[in-house]
Amino acid sequence: MVYVNILIINKDKSNIQKIKFLLSNNKNIKIFQAQSIKDSLLIVIKNSIDIIICDFQISYLGNLEIIKLLEKNSINKNISIFIDTVLEITEINNKIFKTNKRKMKCY
Hints:
By secondary structure, the chain is α/β, with parallel strands linked by helices. It has 4 helices and 4 strands. It has helices spanning about 15-25, 35-45, 60-70, 90-95, and strands at about 5-10, 30-35, 50-55, 80-85. The longest helix is centred in the middle third of the chain and has 13 residues, at about 60-70.
């Protein structure tokens, strides 16, 4: 069986549980979770993650570190990153893309 590996990064454990519940019907998903940037980086380095769902407010610099790490890691080049936020998309673009050339898709 082929799994889709999803990493959920959120400092609020109840938010992680809500996202896990929404994904729980799909048996082909393996969920990893982290409540800190440090833990999430360890997971990304050790596992082939397909999708990251990240709380933008966890740490502005932390999200940039994750994106930069993914770009340097050839195993994980094609990860989809979804940023969970209440900020306006223009604010996120201004923060992330001044220092990073990745393009963001909005869903």
